[in-house]
């Protein structure tokens, strides 16, 4: 009978230890999963942030190029102002006798 009681006590003490080990294994798995979730989310946020910043600089450069092109087109589309022609200079009158 003492062997049966010993086994019952051993089983009674082992059950909570198995439950604790199972819970600890579950916590370790949850930590591992949450670590990968955090790493993945940081990577994705970095990628999205990099794409948005790159898009901002591309659009800013494109707008600057469009402005320059507009100025060049405006310069060439306006007709050139006619340059006034200077009258030919009159030869100086001779002072003195005219022959």
Q: Can you walk me through this structure?
A:
The chain is an all-alpha fold. It has one helix and no strands. The longest helix has 76 residues. The protein is rod-shaped. The mean pLDDT is 85.
The global form is: rod-shaped
State the end-to-end CA separation. Answer: 165 Å
Number of helices: 1
Structural class: mainly alpha
The biggest beta sheet reads: none
SSE topology string? H
β-sheet strand percentage: under 5%
* Rg over CA atoms: 47 Å
Q: Round the mean pLDDT to the nearest integer and report it.
A: 85
Identify low-pLDDT runs. none
Overall number of strands:
0
The portion of residues assigned to helices is: over 70%
């Amino acid at each position: 009978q003492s062997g049966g009681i010993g086994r019952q006590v051993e089983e009674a003490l082992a059950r909570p230890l198995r439950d604790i080990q199972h819970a600890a294994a579950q916590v370790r798995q949850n930590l591992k999963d949450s670590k990968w979730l955090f790493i993945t989310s940081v990577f994705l946020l970095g990628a999205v942030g990099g794409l948005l910043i790159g898009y901002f600089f591309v659009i800013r450069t494109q707008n600057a190029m469009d402005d320059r092109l507009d100025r060049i087109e405006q310069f060439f589309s306006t007709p050139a102002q006619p340059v006034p022609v200077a009258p030919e200079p009159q030869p100086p009158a001779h002072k003195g006798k005219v022959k």
